[in-house]
Amino acid sequence: MQPKKLLLFGVSLLWLSVALPSQTNSLSGSNSISGSVMDQHAKPLSGVMITAFDSVEDKMITVFTKERGTFRLPGLSNRGYKLRARLPGFDDEFTSVALSSGSRAPVALRLKPATNPKMQETSVDRIRLIKWPTDQARLNFRMACVLLPSSRHRRLSRSQGKG
User: Residue 39 maps to which CATH number?
Assistant: First the structure.
């Protein structure tokens, strides 16, 4: 019995060594994109979500700017990326960056105040605007949102003979 466990462990390690590099390929390159994000008055913005979209591998990589508005996206492959900078209260800013072997692309982004702040509201903000006929109707809706997924899970578990 012990040799079977050892063989299974060895096969598992071999599978992981083959499977994992292919899944993290877009982070295995030697290229990087770094830069800074500022507002319209050249003030550095911290906490800006910077996302690099890789359309070749259908992946995205996200980092957040530091206190001085700087960011770095390391380990990128040789290809083009579309960058998006996003911060609530500001319009999204997009730019494209092409990387070649060993390149380090500097990017300077400027965010402008949101032209339509309503477009940035969350679903919770929008639900608060609903005029409910009664408080009970509002509570029933909230309970349905909370309980429905778990009751569906219980039904699926029972139908599969697990509950």
Answer: 2.60.40.10
Same-domain pairing of 33 and 107:
yes
Identify whether residues 38 and 68 lie together within a single domain: yes
CB 17 within 8 A of CB 89: no
DSSP states of 121-159 as a string? --HHHHHTT---SSHHHHHHHHHHHHHHHHHHHHHHHHH
Using one digit for the tens of pLDDT, what is the confidence trace for 58-117? 888 999 999 999 999 998 888 999 999 999 889 999 999 998 877 777 899 999 998 877
Rg of the chain over Cα atoms, rounded to whole angstroms, equals 24
pTM value is 0.58
